[in-house]
Amino acid sequence: MASVASPVIFKEFCPLYYLLNAIPTKVQKGFRSIVVYLTALDTNGDYIAVGSSIGMLYLYCRHLNQMKKYNFEGKCESITFVKLLSCFDDLVAVGTASGRVAVFQLVSSLPGRNKQLRRFDVAGIHKSSITALAWSPNGMKLFSGDDKGKIVYSALDLDQGICNSSLVLEEPSSIVQLDYNQKVLLVSTLQRTILFYTEEKSVKQVGTQPRK
């Protein structure tokens, strides 16, 4: 006898006021009052990361119910993409409208984990807005894509505090999505989707027809 499928129940969830109330709606810059727009979002079991139009990253810890703020030095510019990763250490990668990419290695209260906030910068390869970020599961590799089609690979050595970056691929249209697993990088652009094999440096297109 075939089992009867249980009915699907739709639930409506209320806005996260405890999170939104911890983010200012306006900030004062000299004599000007600037409206703060929320521009990027990522979540996992430990954190909610929210990027803003003023270059501030708001990171809410779900276990401690605490909001922390991180920013880029220098020019205040919009954050366009954020990507969290929980591995041995908690990491968050941030991309901006001008192509800056930074990685924050977060402080943890757990024994043997990172005790000092550290930041790594992907130096000057991207020149346009960051549209996608992808981590390797162990946090040693970060891939970043921009709206001009450039994809940059950054190798991170968290113990030594080193980040080495290089351009690995250049597509003729904007990158819209990246995902990495088992030495294969999935790349979606406005025109096509490809598999980039990082060891062989080879490309295989998914499907044959370009996107319209």
Automatic annotation (TrEMBL):
This is TCPR2 protein. The gene is Tecpr2. Pfam families: WD40. SUPFAM superfamilies: WD40 repeat-like. One of its GO terms (cellular component) is cytoplasm. It comes from the Eukaryota. One of its GO terms (biological process) is protein exit from endoplasmic reticulum. It comes from Caloenas nicobarica. The lineage of its organism: Eukaryota, Metazoa, Chordata, Craniata, Vertebrata.
